[in-house]
């Protein structure tokens, strides 16, 4: 691959790495699994990057690849993430520490979200990221109407989980 393609990928990944961290947080329970999943998503993004045509925003495309990777690995290994070698190439990404203190404030919400199925997790994640239903439907490959209906059901499910007595 050309250096310009590599530089473009690294630039886009730097600008959008928080998306990947948040997806990793959603599908993992500890730092090691988080780092492994982040690495695997990065590898999958790198492998797929030459096919990225720019028909959608990089962030939308990255959401799709990252969510598909997380869901596939989650289903295959039930939270035991295997990684592949990154072809020995050195990429100049800074290892940015993820701010778990900020995430602690959402601990109860994450606990509730962990009880959702994989598609529901992806949908609620994008909703909480302020993605509109058009982008959610495009990323998940469902209709906007289906995304809205699913979102309303998920909200009800989360309310029951977070307030089981209905008080």
Q: Which SSEs are present, and which pair or pack?
A:
Layout: H1 3-27, H2 31-48, H3 58-77, H4 100-104, H5 107-114, H6 118-128, H7 133-140, H8 144-162
Helix pairs in contact: 1-2, 1-3, 2-3, 3-7, 6-8, 7-8
Q: What is the CATH architecture assignment of the largest domain? A: Orthogonal Bundle
**CATH fold call of the largest domain:** Rna Polymerase Sigma Factor, Chain: A
* Sheet/helix structural class: mainly alpha
Question: For the record, what CATH class of the largest domain applies?
Answer: Mainly Alpha
Under CATH, the homologous superfamily of the largest domain reads RNA polymerase sigma factor, region 2, helix turn helix motif
Strand content is: under 5%
Count the domains. Answer: 2
Domain RNA polymerase sigma-70 region: 14-79
Pfam families: Sigma70_r2, Sigma70_r4_2
Protein name: RNA polymerase sigma-70 factor, ECF subfamily
Domain RNA polymerase sigma factor 70 region 4 type: 110-158
What does this entry show, briefly?
The chain has helices at 3-27, 31-48, 58-77, 100-104, 107-114, 118-128, 133-140, 144-162. The chain has 167 residues and is mainly alpha-helical.
How would you characterize this protein structure?
The chain has helices spanning 3-27, 31-48, 58-77, 100-104, 107-114, 118-128, 133-140, 144-162. It folds into two domains: 1-98, Orthogonal Bundle (Rna Polymerase Sigma Factor, Chain: A), CATH 1.10.1740; 106-167, Orthogonal Bundle (Arc Repressor Mutant, subunit A), CATH 1.10.10. By secondary structure, it is mainly α. It is built from eight helices and no strands. 68% of the residues lie in helices and 0% in strands. Belongs to the sigma-70 factor family. ECF subfamily.
């Amino acid at each position: 691959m050309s250096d310009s393609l590599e530089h473009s990928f690294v630039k886009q990944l730097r600008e959008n790495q928080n998306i990947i961290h948040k997806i990793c947080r959603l599908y993992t329970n500890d730092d090691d699994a988080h780092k492994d999943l982040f690495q695997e998503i990065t590898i999958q993004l790198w492998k797929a990057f030459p096919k990225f045509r720019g028909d959608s925003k990089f962030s939308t495309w990255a959401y799709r690849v990252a969510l598909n990777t997380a869901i596939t690995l989650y289903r295959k290994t039930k939270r035991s993430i295997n990684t592949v070698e990154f072809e020995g190439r050195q990429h100049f990404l800074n290892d940015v520490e993820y701010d778990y203190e900020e995430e602690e404030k959402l601990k109860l919400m994450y606990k509730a979200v962990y009880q959702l199925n994989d598609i529901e997790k992806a949908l609620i994640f994008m909703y909480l990221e302020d993605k509109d239903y058009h982008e959610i439907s495009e990323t998940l490959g469902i209709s906007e109407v289906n995304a809205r209906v699913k979102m309303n059901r998920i909200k009800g499910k989360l309310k029951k989980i977070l307030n089981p007595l209905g008080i």
